[in-house]
Amino acid sequence: MSMNAQIVVQAGSPRIDLGIGQLQAHAWFYGLPSLLGALLLAAAWVQPWVPVADLLRDPLSVAEMSQDCCGLYYGALSNLGVLIWAGAAAACLFAGLLLAVVSGWSPAAVFLIYGGLLTGLLTVDDLFLLHDYVLPHFNVPQLLVYAVYAALALGYVALFARQILEHGALAFLTAGSLLAISVGIDQVIHSDAPIRIFIEDGAKLMGIIVWTGFHVRTALTICVRALRDEVGLAVRRSFAVDRPGRLS
Q: Could you give the CA distance from residue 59 to residue 220 in angstroms, rounded to a whole number?
């Protein structure tokens, strides 16, 4: 065992972190993505070439309402939201399974996998329009679908409140509020006015961005912490073998 390793053990577990401070982490995971999302929404609103609804609504809805189907830009921001959803789901599921392999089925691993599955469900719904077209076609009311999603989200909060509070309750609450605003407008205000569509789908996109920022940052933080603990344990075990009797 080298002197450097001995110093590391005496000082505690090896330090492995994201290499950035709290303010920088907020900027990278929330500030910059939210700014880009807001700029995209602003550009969609002020550009003079196509109706803003054609960019924000899902492509199928735009195609059905269009008189000259179809344009490559149909549902551009809606598709972007699906991709961002998918990124959050993939990050959570990968991190949760990695954590389960490394350190067992801890509450943190279950939290990440639940979050990944819930986000994956929302991704599939957004991509294939489950609550808009598929399930209503089989006589499943849209309100019932929303109620199921709300129950799953409330279960997520109830089961993993400690993890959510630890890793950014404000960001989680912000994301949930934006998504709830979008659903509320969809259910209460039935209008094709561009401003209504802009607020509804704009809130949804911003909610997806913040939701993804929270989950990607949380997944990365938990995995780094687990790796740090495993490396620290391995170093201490190696030190104990090289220096028997030095560690109790």
A: 33
